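Weekly modeling sync, notes
Attendees: AB, CL, MP (scribe)

Item 1: holo prediction request
CL wants a bound-state model with heme C before deciding which constructs to order. AB pointed out that an apo prediction alone won't tell us much about the pocket. Agreed to run with the ligand included and paste results into these notes for async review.

Input as submitted:
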Amino acid sequence: MTTSRAEWRRSRAGRVVAVLAGLGVLGMVMGAWVAALNVRGEAPLRPEATRAPATAAQVAQGAYLARVGNCIGCHTAPGGPALAGGRAVTTPFGTVYSPNLTPDPVTGLGAWTSDEFWRALHHGRSRDGRLLYPAFPYPQFTQVTREDADALLAYLRSVPPVVQPQRPHALRFPYGTQAALAVWRALYFRPADALPRPVPGQDATWQRGRYLVEGLGHCAACHSPRDRLGGVRDEQAWLGGPMPAGDWVAPSLADPQQAGVQRWPLETTARLLRDGTVPGASVSGPMAEVVFASTQHLTPDDALAMARYLATLPERPVARAMAVQAPAAQRELGQRLYTRHCTDCHGDQGEGRPGRFPALAGNRAVTLADPHNVLQMIRHGGFAPSTAGHPRPHGMPPFGHVLDAEAQAAVATYIRQAWGAPAPAISALEVLRLP
Ligand code: HEC
Ligand code: HEC
Ligand code: HEC
């Protein structure tokens, strides 16, 4: 009796050991696989002496590309010196602080070779080999050509050096670990081919637009939804999603009822990118920052090329839920508030005033099913970006301190339902839930 029990224990222990050993081997194989995926496509780094010094044309080209990629927007702290880093970039997993890109040899890029810079942009790896967080949009920047990367570095080397050490990131465990990042990269990141492969059957303008939108412009960083691990799945591309801070949503570029421009004349899209406003649409919130810092500087040709590519994104409209009409009491309250606070600028019928105040009737930013953006506008107000084509935008005053949650919900619901196809009503609870 005792012997057989001891044997049974031994054999059970043997099985446990075998399973653990098996898991250990599996873990090592997976680990090796994740590690291999993290360095795929990387060439050995060469010493800098093998490269020619920068030309003035290269520096100018780099300055332009830095605008297109909005390096300054993310790498400049509010009120701080340009490109010296320290700006907080919010992610669902904590805060990442942008590094110093000025040519200071200790705290900036001064000692970086162009191979090292290329590896950061193309492979998402820092000079010391550390894996970088995708809050730095290298999943898009990996598309950038070596020539453009070298021009960017030539420009960054030409700006005044600033001594500003790195602020440590504040990410929750385990997201701050290199192991977590390695797994994330194995799941979601693939470096692009070193030379971009043209898509057959499309002309040069379209290819240029694709290169800018998918690469340096990193439009997908906001306009593609992220899953729970913060990754973008190919089949979800361009469907829109919430901004990490939870305040605004980036609408879908695949849905003409949201931000899709498939049915717009190309000139209109190009003008929206360069001016920030066109009849019937006006950028606000995070998109106003993108236009201000980045797309207003696009050459007319590049803006048109982007428009051309955006117009060919496959349409994937979301089926609209039947909008529930607001109860009579909310409708009356909304109408009263609208007449009192909004008609002066936006007009009795929400028709707006061309070039000054956007129309609210037929404005897709107003009828977007998700209520975040419309409520942000009402609560905080805002300015369209000041651009060459629209240098002195009028402002919209904030109403957060004038109207309580119930009143904000009522006026928002009113402008969504008063003119034409109604959008879902908004409740006071939704207003209170807003960050
Ligand atoms: C959306 C914000 C954002 C934009 C836009 C952005 N960066 Fe960054 N970048 C970051 C953050 C955040 C990091 C830090 C990542 C980390 O430490 O893991 C970073 C890291 C880097 C690094 C690595 C530096 C180091 O010390 O390891 C380089 C190089 C870099 N960025 C260059 C650029 C260039 C060039 C552009 C413009 C073409 C650009 N970035 C645009 C946010 C941004
Ligand atoms: C930092 C996040 C972010 C990035 C990067 C970004 N967008 Fe947006 N975009 C938004 C948000 C948020 C909105 C909704 C606010 C609004 O309507 O202006 C928006 C709105 C839009 C709209 C609809 C404007 C309207 O009123 O109809 C278009 C078109 C658009 N974006 C195109 C682009 C393109 C093209 C790029 C790349 C060059 C880009 N976006 C990059 C966040 C972003
Ligand atoms: C003093 C003039 C003024 C008043 C009053 C005003 N607005 Fe505005 N509103 C503007 C301007 C200017 C913009 C464009 C700002 C921008 O693009 O960021 C705007 C934008 C908006 C938008 C976003 C439209 C878009 O295309 O993205 C909404 C929604 C809106 N207003 C609603 C309201 C409501 C509701 C009220 C009343 C409670 C109101 N506004 C009162 C001037 C005004």
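Recorded for review: Residues 4 and 10 are 10 Å apart (CA to CA).
Action items: CL to compare against the apo run; MP to circulate these notes.
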